[in-house]
Amino acid sequence: MQLVLLEWRRFINRCIWSWQGIVEIWRTEASFRTWVLVNIVSATLAVVVDLTGAERGLILSLGILILAAELMNSAIERAIDYISEDIHPLAKAAKDAGSAGVALTAVAAGIAWLMILIG
To answer: pTM for this structure?
Structure first.
């Protein structure tokens, strides 16, 4: 029982830390807030448009993945900025790669919407 309680506490801590990360990025990153807005619109359309459960699930899941990618991109940017504010080609490459990850995730969601709508 002790082990179960310990694991439960660890789980609760992870949830708290994750929520703190989301709140911090929401407060400081306009791009995250933009993607949240886009997701609200997309989720609303996914509920209003006549979609199958699988199509709706795909659209909602891809929207969440865009937010996850944006959170990871923000983490990369912050870690690099913490290490050094100096301009360096490797820092630029890492930040650009993180941004590209968000873009590719968004393209995947766009393609899913397009394929669903045109059938």
So the answer is: 0.91
